[in-house]
Structure formats: structure tokens, C-alpha cells
Amino acid sequence: MSSEDTRPDALDRPRPRSLADLFLSFSWLALQGFGGVLAVAQRELVEKKRWLTREEFTEEWAVAQIMPGPNVINMAITLGGRHFGWRGGVAALAGMLSAPLLITLCLAVVYGQLSQYPAVAGALRGMGAVSAGLITATGIKLIPGLRKNVLGPVVCISLGLAALLAVAWLRLPLVWVLLVLGGIGMGLAYRRLSP
Amino acid sequence: MSPLLMSAADWLQLVLHFATLSLLGIGGAITTLPDMHRYLVDRQLWLSDAQFNASVALAQAAPGPNILFVALMGWHVGLNAGGGWLAPMGAIITLAGILLPSSIIAYSGGQWSHRNRELRAVRAFKAGLAPTVIGLLIATGTVLATASGSTLDQWPVWLIAAVSTLIVWRTKVHILWLLGTGALIGAFFLA
User: Fold this and answer.
1) What pLDDT sits at residue A159?
2) Which residues of chain B have a CB within 8 Å of the CB of A121?
3) Which helix (H) or strand (E) holds B31?
4) According to the model, what pLDDT value does residue B148 have?
5) Is B106 helix (H, G, I), strand (E, B) or coil?
6) A69 in the Ramachandran plot: left (φ > 0), alpha (ψ -120 to 50) or beta?
7) Alpha-carbon distance B58 to B68, whole Å?
8) pLDDT averaged over chain B?
9) Phi, psi dihedrals of residue B181, rounded to the nearest 5°
10) Is pLDDT larger for residue A118 or for residue B92?
11) Touching check for B116 and chain A: CB below 8 Å?
């Protein structure tokens, strides 16, 4: 039973410098996110900017998942809010949405003319396959962060595999998977964390 | 489609519907997609099936969060209602509807959990969910890779997905290069 907090000190780590930094960082992040932003978020926030460690990213992601609304957006708001209050949340949200919204609407305008070409549909499928790979790799890259988890390797691997099978193979509704497996994990973690 | 008659009350109803769904979309707004179809296409007849599907597919192809598919639905409703400035207005108000309630909750929840991060319950919550969340991520990738079917003739899609998994995991190649390559391969071999 260990109660040591493995969380690194937040003060001596890189953090967003200003509201503009938040806005631009999240714009740049969102603009790279084809077929979803999560994979890019992990790469930018953990590997490049180092605003979050791998463990923190997984935890924030867990919190963002359990709340209503799009996960990446929730995470941007939480991160922005942590550093600059509500204005930080708004700056991160605006960064995440502004440029992509413009591009998406432009795409909608030209879509009518292009959709008849099979090559365009093929290109979309190719990009879809790449983004599927991105998300899988993101999950794999977060696994080493579980080493410090109080649950220990056996429980972590069992819960992770159960979640994978429940959603990818059995196609169970996400809410139930989160409630049941997440609930078991939380209960075990609560018992193992000494008060 | 002949122009729709959309009154101010109709627009308000549309926004309120998305605002309700905003609170229900736990695990991502994509889980409320079936209900959007029921409301917009089947019940109100504000969108055609083709427009609904195009909204989702286009948002996936464009950069940015997938939630932008909601803006495209609003855009298409605006087009059906006569176009012009109604289309961008529809996009913006539906996006505000789907995001505002959940964003306020995310903000307050995030602030609260950070202030109380040393609480045993908060630490147990985060540590306990972590393995499930990682399993879910890998599952999402798998589901996306097999979205267009899991028959053997889909092997080129799986191969692209598997190779990009390996590249993203083991190297630092920029994601845009991978997407560009995927688009090229797709245009020539998946068309």
C-alpha cells in the first residue's frame, strides 16, 4: 500500500504562456486532426509541448470521457481553464473550433461538385484508415503510463483487454462499459489508495 | 427539396434539441447520432438522408474535432430553408447548442477535480478509469478500421491502418504526411 503521489510538480514544467498561446496551440492541434483530434492531442500536448505527462493525459482523458460532450473539446476546456480560468477555457475552445469550422464549411461547399468522382471517395477511405491507425497507436503509446497505476499490471491488463473486447468485438454500448469496468477499477483503486 | 419554412420558433427548437443531446452525449457526442437522425430526418423532415450522411462523412474528412458534423447539419438545414445567410447561421447556432451545456459542465468539473486532486476519491476515479480508457481507445481504432466492413476484401484498409499504427507508435513522422500518403493510396487503390 503506497500513498506516494507520483504526480510531478506542476510548476517546473512547460505550460501555456498566454491566452494567445492556448488559442494558437489548440488551432494548430485541431488543424492536424483528420478524422478526430485525439491522436494529435496526445502527440502535441504530451510529446511536443509537454504540458501534460502521459499519466496526466490518460487521467484527463478519463475525466473528459465520463462527462457529456465531445472528449477532445472537454479536455481543451479543462486544460485552458486550469491555467487561465474561464478565459483560458474559451480561448482553448475557440482555437479548437474556429479554423476547422471554416475549412469544414468550405469543404461542404465544394463537396457537391467533387462527390461524384470515385477517386475522392477512395482518398477519403484511405485517410480514414490512417486515422484509425492513429487512434490505435495513441492507445498503445499510453500503456507505459499504467506502470505507476495503483491497480498493478494484472488488473490494468485485464480491465484494458475487457474494454477492448467489449467495444470492438461485442459492440456493447460505451456507457455500460465505462460504468461497469470503470466502476470496478475505481472501487479497487479506492481500496488500494490508503486514506 | 423545395425551400423549407423555418420559423424563428423552429430554429429555437432545433437549438434546444441539440442542447438536450449535449447533456446526454456521455462518451462523446457521436453516441447521440441515432437520435439526431430520428429528429432531423424522420420527424421534422428538415434534412434528407443523403445530407445527414454527408454531414457526418465531411466532418470526418475535414481537420478538427468530429463534433463539427453538427455544424454541417445546421448548415444543411439552413440551405434547405432557403440558403444565403441562413446556412452559416444554422451552422453556428447548432454548434453552440451542442457545445454550450456540455462545455460548462466540463469546465466546472475540470476545475473541481483539479482543486480536489489529492482527494482519495478523485485519485481513485482517475487511476481506476485509466486502463478502461486505454482499452477503449484501441477499440475505437479497431472499430474505425473495420467500419466499411469486416470481410476479407477489405484487407487494403486494414493494411493501411496497421502500418500507420506501427509508424505512429514507433516513429515521429508527422501525421499530415501519413494522411497525405493514405489519401493518395486511397485515390488509386480504394476507388
Assistant:
1) 96
2) 191
3) none
4) 64
5) helix
6) left
7) 9
8) 86
9) -60, -45
10) B92
11) no
